[in-house]
Design brief:
By secondary structure, the chain is α/β, with parallel strands linked by helices. It contains 5 helices and 6 strands; from the N terminus they run βαβαβαββαβα. It has a 6-stranded parallel β-sheet with strand order 1-6-5-2-4-3.
Length: 167
């Protein structure tokens, strides 16, 4: 049991998107490649804004329609502007596997219990160590393993190493 934590330094935003897509591809096809050691059934992606969420979900939905291999990507956005009923339905669909990739801001990291999240991807580096802890705490629950992968642009790497990892 436990949480494996890894970070990947990327040179720019364009490479960040490419790296993110590769991580999801490896997760869905159970390709280890030194990053993932177990299969991923449910992934939570955390972003800093609704604009990024919408952009990523749009891209993932486009790619999901083109995928013809075993595990199919089924992403959805969890935003603060959803009604309570829509949030509950979305969380139910995520818990039952109808959705396997939930993309959200930090709104989902506190006060919402979602069991069996295998992987958390920090698409954006959190500003504070407590935010990182709440994000990481979404996986590896109830004596299960989980992985947290943080995508860190080169310009953020120093802050992440110093303020988040070493805290």
């Amino acid at each position: 049991t436990g949480i494996a934590q890894k970070y990947i330094v990327v040179p720019n935003d364009s490479m960040k998107v490419r790296c993110f897509l590769r991580i999801l591809e490896m997760a869905l096809t159970n390709t280890a490649c030194g990053i993932l050691s177990e299969s991923v059934n449910r992934c939570l992606v955390l972003c800093k804004s609704n604009d990024i969420i919408n952009s990523l979900v749009g891209l993932l939905n486009t790619l999901a329609k083109k995928t013809s291999t075993g595990n199919i990507l089924r992403p959805s956005a969890f935003c603060g502007n959803l009604s309570t009923d829509d949030r509950e339905k979305l969380l139910c669909n995520f818990s039952t596997g109808k959705i396997n990739c939930l993309v959200s801001t930090d709104i989902i990291t506190r006060g919402i219990d979602i069991p069996d999240i295998d992987m958390v991807v920090n698409y954006d580096v959190p500003k504070h160590v407590t935010t990182y802890i709440h994000r990481a705490g979404r996986t590896g629950r109830a004596n299960k393993t989980g992985i947290v992968i943080t995508l860190c642009e080169k310009k953020e790497a120093r802050h992440f190493r110093k303020d988040i990892i070493q805290a």
